[in-house]
């Protein structure tokens, strides 16, 4: 079974909204062995939607469309589906009852009549009720194909997919498993890595595929295989991973994790170490990354975003003289910030960042794109500098934060803390 | 001129990576009046890439493809382009010189030979050199159409688009302008808003389009128009906006801003107020949102992420008794946190969050998805509760943070601080 996604919405095409639904849906489908083979992102126009349905049918057996189901005039997905399937739109009493409860629960009973059209669905459709919004999810099965229309709001999409669509598909079809395995490599450029593992790569079985995914200066090697038995797939992939150990073992910082924050969690849990942060140029991104992992509260105790430089002095105890002598974007200030955070939060590890993210230079005329970050593990300390002049503000904060966590992982592995 | 984007990469289709390039490129193209009419996301397979080029040519005059240009075996875009355009791949000496400088600058001269294939390009292509990576950007012009192939790494894509592709297109074509204008409405559901402004909406000129974009409980009304004179377009849109004032004026929190953090910046700059944060369940997301805006350092002085509850006591001065009596996820703790932050950072405004983001409940058995947030403006204070049981961890942090900023905007507008 192959899936095609259709993302419907002018707000995506206009660059206003990033489409995160496709990413979520593709990830969930992969878990039950359904690969997504293509994604169409189209405008809120009846013809575009119909054309994409047509194209999607040629590529897959399962089509999942998101968006265009709001109660307003700019939303046209339902009409496009009606025309595409030569169907009628009818008021569904079960959906109407659900809608009634939905509005009553929110003390908005007076809005029911106005939203009645949201209970009008395709006559052929099977309905999955939406617990978090007024637009129901409709499914049509025709000629052995399945088409599902979902609303576009991510927090309506996620529970519908996770709690209703995926269980339905997993139960109805005897599906393959897709197993992926990620190895994180550092300290070697992609071209050289590719050369070093060439004979291993060429000897991989045909049904195990390899991708190189660079993230900053880390390269994720991802192995993927598909088949009936999850256990067997995992065994076969593991055999290949074992062969890689003598070839690039020294450059590997994780044999199984994916995100750097997950890799770090494994290590911190094992070593029972705690972490605090003191951020300036990353503005909270570093602690956000750390706390994005469930269970992070066991090792992440807290952080300071000392954005104004007086706060670096008052709260973190950075010396005013250091700031005057070296400016706020300096190795010395990064070091004093991590020292202050370790003391304030009483943690084993502290991480600090200070830099100029632009687009304007700072009050000390430091060069845009410069960042210093300090990593402290017990009484060990290391400061590094990054120079990223072409990065926009948010990419800069994210890149620096990722690098801090990656360097911490490297230190914890190599230095055996 | 119409544009079609092609995103090439198995890592997108597998749900591993969110495609942020399309969003950026669409936004930049819009600024010079080129609408994106469709996006194809396809796998790293030669046939898929060729088919998408074929389909893209039918829909637009400008095709921009990203991804699949790495030096490793899993990247196949160049071969697909070669076959599609029946062209040859040749070593380009200028690109090779650029590559040489690129590696030398990074003290990686020894890697040049290995990366030589990166200087091999389509013989028909015009080359835009890549300052931040080894894969050049290639452009082919044929039958009045333009096709551009870019690498996939976002921080390579952004400067290529901004500094090279956009200036080239803007100079070559006499383009239309696309003007958009966003009005932010709160305190009224989408269906009711749609009814209230129905006659205004139906009377809009044909070439001004309206979209409803819900973000939490805020609705963004977006007006879009396209034409030769930017000034005239803005005047015409403004006329329509003026007519809206008597109809929904009381519910509008911004007549022009888009993101809530931008809307807040305008107000804080005008009123010369400073802000600090004290976060728990949002884990840094609130300060990240605040600092994502350039110039935020004039009003955002800093924040605390007090993740461990002892830190709420030690650093923010929350009383241990309050935590014991009310648990850490309570109105009272939220209030004491904002009080502590206002005192610690000496700001006019302080914002705090405390909640349970899940997937696991906290040590006090509070219900997953519960959050309290407190907003303090000078001696005014307000605490609210949110209940978002179906949200995943990161959506929860983002939703709560957005809501805090939105409520702050409402308070600042209505209470005239």
Structure write-up:
Chains A, B: Residues 4-172 form the MoaB/Mog domain. Chains A, B: Belongs to the CinA family. Chains A, B: Pfam families: CinA, CinA_KH, MoCF_biosynth. 2 copies of one chain form a homodimer. The first copy, chain A, is an alpha/beta fold and 417 residues long. Chain A has 3 domains: 3-172, 3-Layer(aba) Sandwich (Molybdenum Cofactor Biosythetic Enzyme, Chain A), CATH 3.40.980.10; 177-254, Alpha-Beta Plaits (2-Layer Sandwich); 260-414, CinA-like (Maf protein), CATH 3.90.950.20. Helix content of chain A is 41%, strand content 25%. Chain A has 15 helices and 17 strands. Chain A has a 6-stranded mixed β-sheet with strand order 2-1-3-8-7-6, with helices on both faces. In chain A, a hairpin with a 2-residue loop joins strand 16 (370-377) and strand 17. In chain A, helix 10 (260-271) packs parallel to helix 15. The first copy, chain A, is globular, with a radius of gyration of 26 Å. The two termini of chain A are 47 Å apart. The mean pLDDT of chain A is 94. At the A-B interface, helix 1, helix 2, strand 2, helix 6 and helix 7 of A face helix 1, helix 2, strand 2, helix 3 and helix 6 of B.
């Amino acid at each position: 079974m192959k899936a095609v996604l259709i993302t419907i919405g002018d707000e995506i095409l206009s660059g206003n909204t990033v489409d995160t639904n496709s990413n979520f849906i593709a990830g969930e489908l992969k878990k039950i062995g359904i690969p997504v083979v293509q994604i169409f992102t189209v405008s809120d126009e009846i013809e575009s939607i119909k054309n994409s349905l047509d194209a999607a049918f040629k590529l897959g057996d399962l089509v999942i469309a998101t968006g265009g189901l709001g109660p307003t005039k700019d939303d046209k997905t339902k009409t496009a589906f009606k025309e595409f399937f030569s169907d009628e739109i009818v008021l569904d009493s079960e959906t109407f009852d659900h809608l009634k409860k939905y509005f009553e629960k929110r003390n908005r009973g007076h809005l029911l009549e106005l939203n009645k059209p949201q209970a009008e669905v395709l006559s052929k459709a099977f309905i999955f009720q939406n617990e978090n919004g007024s637009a129901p999810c409709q499914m049509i099965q025709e000629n052995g194909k399945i088409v599902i229309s979902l609303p576009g709001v991510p927090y309506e999409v996620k529970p519908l997919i996770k709690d209703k669509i995926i269980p339905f598909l997993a139960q109805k079809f005897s599906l393959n498993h897709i197993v992926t395995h990620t190895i994180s490599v550092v300290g070697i450029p992609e071209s050289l890595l590719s050369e070093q593992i060439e004979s291993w790569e060429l000897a991989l079985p045909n049904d195990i595929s390899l991708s190189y995914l660079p993230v900053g200066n880390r390269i994720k090697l991802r192995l993927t295989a598909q088949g009936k038995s999850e256990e067997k797939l995992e065994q076969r992939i593991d055999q290949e991973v074992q062969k890689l150990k003598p070839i690039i073992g020294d450059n590997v910082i994780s044999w199984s994790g994916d995100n750097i924050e997950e890799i770090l969690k494994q290590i911190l849990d094992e070593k029972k170490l705690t972490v605090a942060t003191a951020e300036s140029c990353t503005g909270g991104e570093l602690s956000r990354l750390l706390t994005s992992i469930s269970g992070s509260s066991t090792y992440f105790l807290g952080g300071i975003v000392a954005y104004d430089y007086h706060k670096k002095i008052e709260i973190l105890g950075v010396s005013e003289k250091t700031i005057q002598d070296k400016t706020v974007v300096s190795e010395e200030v990064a070091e004093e910030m991590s020292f202050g955070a370790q003391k304030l939060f009483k943690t084993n590890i502290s991480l600090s960042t200070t830099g100029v993210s632009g687009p304007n230079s700072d009050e000390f005329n430091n060069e845009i794109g410069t960042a210093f970050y300090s990593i402290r593990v017990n009484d060990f300390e290391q400061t590094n500098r990054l120079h990223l002049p072409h990065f926009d503000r948010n990419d800069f904060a994210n890149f620096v934060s990722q690098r801090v966590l990656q360097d911490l992982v490297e230190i914890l592995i190599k230095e055996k803390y």
